[in-house]
Amino acid sequence: MYTGIVQGAYPVVNVEKKVGLNSVTVALPSEMMADLSIGASVGLDGVCLTVTTFTNSEVSFDIMHETLSLTTLSTLSVGDRVNVERSAKQGVEVGGHYISGHVDGVVKVVDIQESENNYMVSYELPPVLVPYVFKKGFVGLNG
Questions:
Q1: Cα–Cα distance between 26 and 63 in angstroms, integer?
Q2: What is the mean pLDDT of each run of 10 residues along the chain (143 residues)?
Q3: Phi, then psi, of 66 in degrees rounded to 5
Q4: What is the maximum span of the chain, computed from C-alpha positions, in angstroms?
């Protein structure tokens, strides 16, 4: 589970395209690496991924075909930055909303309105997802 509060944007340092998956490595600061383990869940651009390997400053993930087809993670290149969130821990303030990080679909940006202090972005949902989105509800978009 995640809170939806992005903890930082960090660089992709390696992308290896394989049959049926991409292996992606991201450089993280030491505070993001604390207590990390193989099998841990980490959110990249709002997508729940499983740690496959890590060093003192880098973490790698295998992104499977289905996830590549439902997200923008298939377009990642070395030098791109991704929004990163470590999974939520029990007993710690949530600060956001509980979200799973499991992707159900892709939306289309249909309008962006800029005001003095913010942006209002409008999306078009696939019809199959419409029944699951409600007023004052929440969804995760790129983290």
A1: 13
A2: 75 96 96 92 91 96 92 94 82 64 78 92 87 76 61
A3: -60, -45
A4: 46
